[in-house]
Amino acid sequence: MIPFVRREYIISLLEDKKMLTVETLAKELFVSGATMRRDLQFLEKEGRIRRIHGGAALPLQSMQDMPLLSRRMERKAEKQAIAKAAARFISPGDTLILDASTTVLALGEALRDMGSLTIISSGLLTVQAFAVPGRRVMCTGGMLRENSASLAGVDAAAFLRDHHGSWSVVSCRGLTHDGLWESVPEEAAIKRCMLDAGDRHMLLCDSSKFNQYYLCKTDELRRIDVLVTDRQPQGTLLNALRQANVEIVLT
Asked: Are 122 and 100 in contact (CB under 8 A)?
């Protein structure tokens, strides 16, 4: 296969899989690792890919910040199952610090019959979903991010520094062996504050996010106590989760 054709095939594979290792690409194209690394270096110089540790991903994926209403319809059944499994960890009287993600939003329905909770969230829809009789519900305040119907910035961070929860429950845009990832800095920053404010930390993440890199790193895997997901992680990601002592709960 001539280099031009091979490089176009690399792009098509990344458009399908989003992220691939050098080893996987080399096997798929029947070339050596050295040849594949040269191809990736060439494509990176053209701005068509971005190099990551041990592989490559598409450059534009890291910049995406999809509107919340669009994300709510993605993998809806998986999110509902994850929320139902996550609800088993929550007890009456708990204080929950919740992000503005659609997966965490689904937790509102799973906990609809548990009245005696205190809710702290940066998500406008999340606050609304969790506002039922018998609960104390607080919003962080801060600067509105319209795409995600969420609040962020220094005021939101200051609010979280002054409050404390039994559980921090967050999602992520990508989960890799070296951490949690978000598409914009504001979301990564506010989720770090949420993790700082909780006694225990639960990550709700469907398997489509495994091995996906985005622009901003939120935190290390060791910050997570429980991962609730729909499919068992594999390979390097699974090993990293085990080394970080993350409890994996499957729906």
From this structure: yes
Query: What is the rounded CA–CA span in Å between residue 191 and residue 204?
Result: 13
Handedness of CA 162, 168, 169, 173 (dihedral sign): positive
List the CATH code of the domain at 3-63.
Answer: 1.10.10.10
- Encode pLDDT of 136-189 as tens digits: 999 999 998 877 788 999 999 999 999 999 999 999 999 999 999 998 889 999
Under CATH, which number does the domain 68-250 receive?
3.40.50.1360
Q: Where are the domains of the chain?
A: 3-63, 68-250
Residue 211 to residues 85, 135, 200, 207, 217, Cα–Cα distance (Å): 22, 37, 24, 9, 13
**What pLDDT does residue 168 have?**
98
d(CA 192, CA 186): 10
Distance separating the N- and C-terminal Cα atoms of the chain = 43
- Which of 43-52, 101-110, 149-158 comes out lowest in average pLDDT? 43-52
